Amino acid sequence: MRETLRYVAIGDSLSEGVGDEPWPDGTLRGWTDRLAALLVERRGADGMLEYANLAVRGSKSARVLESQVDEAVAMNPDLVTLTAGMNDLLRRRLDFDVVRSTLIEIVRPFTARGARLLIVPIPDVRAVSPMGRLIDARRLRLNAIYRELARDHGVEEIAETTGSVFEDRRAWAEDRLHLSPLGHERLARAAATSLGVLSDADALLPPTGVVPPTTIRAEALWCWRYVAPWVGRRLRGVSSGDGRIAKRPVLEPYAK
């Protein structure tokens, strides 16, 4: 009998795949799709993978809890990956006690059923974006909550990101908020290594070569193209995820 592994990705734009190269049909790809492909490859002919991705860009932790968790639990997954908390950090008002309790509510029903749950720590992006310097203290507090989830609630952190490729601008898309194709590919490899289906000691190493320098013109264009629209959405009280639905809402065999 063929053994089926059920994998569900939940979270925000990182798990939705924003910043990666799309599939030929225009569907977002992303590190979770890449991880699914690695799982299929390593499982071989005798193992099937069913995969769903419920992540939606712009989701804060509360929205992940309200709109994704019940649906994901009903799929009875063996493996869950979670990215949540970054959008909370980017809001002016932030209550870490609320974020902590929300994250506990997100992970508890999965680990209580014996599912493996991997969470992605927030890397130090001070060298990537000026915003990184503004949120670094918050980032450290959020990562401390992730470590608590790992210690007390059965969650697994994918990898230590300090000194990794994720502190390199080349791992980030032009908007500096989402991973580039390189970043998505490396995160998938790191996750597969954490799961024991891949042994890749180089997954988190920065790429060789010199990081291209930034210029005043590039910084000005970044502010105009990405920062200004983001601020505009905050002022209007709208989210980039408004009106969007999950890209893979049904648990089905992974074929890509």
What's a concise summary of this model?
This protein is α/β, with parallel strands linked by helices and 256 residues long. It is 43% helix and 13% strand. It contains eight helices and six strands; from the N terminus they run βααβαβααβαβααβ.
Tell me what the structure shows.
- The chain has 256 residues and is of the alpha/beta class.
- It has a single domain, classed as Rossmann fold (3-Layer(aba) Sandwich).
- It is built from 8 helices and 6 strands.
- It has helices at residues 13-16, 31-43, 61-74, 86-89, 96-112, 130-152, 181-194, 216-236, and strands spanning 3-11, 47-53, 79-83, 116-119, 155-157, 248-253.
- A 6-stranded mixed β-sheet has the order 5-4-3-1-2-6, sandwiched between helices.
- β4, α6 and β5 (155-157) form a beta-alpha-beta unit.
- α2 (31-43) packs across α7.
- The longest helix is centred in the middle third of the chain and has 23 residues, at 130-152.
- The chain is globular, with a radius of gyration of 18 Å.
- The chain starts with a strand and ends with a strand.
The total tally of domains equals 1
Q: What is the CATH architecture assignment?
A: 3-Layer(aba) Sandwich
Please compute the radius of gyration using only Cα atoms: 18 Å
Shape: globular
Low-confidence stretches: none
CATH level 1 class label:
Alpha Beta
Strand order of the largest sheet: 5-4-3-1-2-6
SSE run: EHHEHEHHEHEHHE
Secondary-structure class: alpha/beta
Helix proportion: 40-55%
Provide the CATH superfamily.
SGNH hydrolase
Total number of β-strand segments?
6
Counted by DSSP, the helix tally is 8
- Tell me about the largest β-sheet: 6 strands, mixed
pLDDT averaged residue by residue? 87
Q: Output the CATH topology.
A: Rossmann fold
Percent of sequence in beta strands: 5-15%
Distance between the termini: 23 Å
